[in-house]
Amino acid sequence: MSCSRLGQKKPVSIGERKWSIHTSMDESNEAQLRGSGRSVQDFSPFCEGDVEPRLNKKINVLIDSTSDYIVYLDEEFYVEWAYSRLPGESPAGFDNVANQIGHLETLSITQLTKAQREPFARLLGEAMARVIGGGKEEEAMAVLEKAVLILVREVLKTHDSGT
Question: Is the pTM above the cut of 0.70?
Answer without folding.
Answer: yes
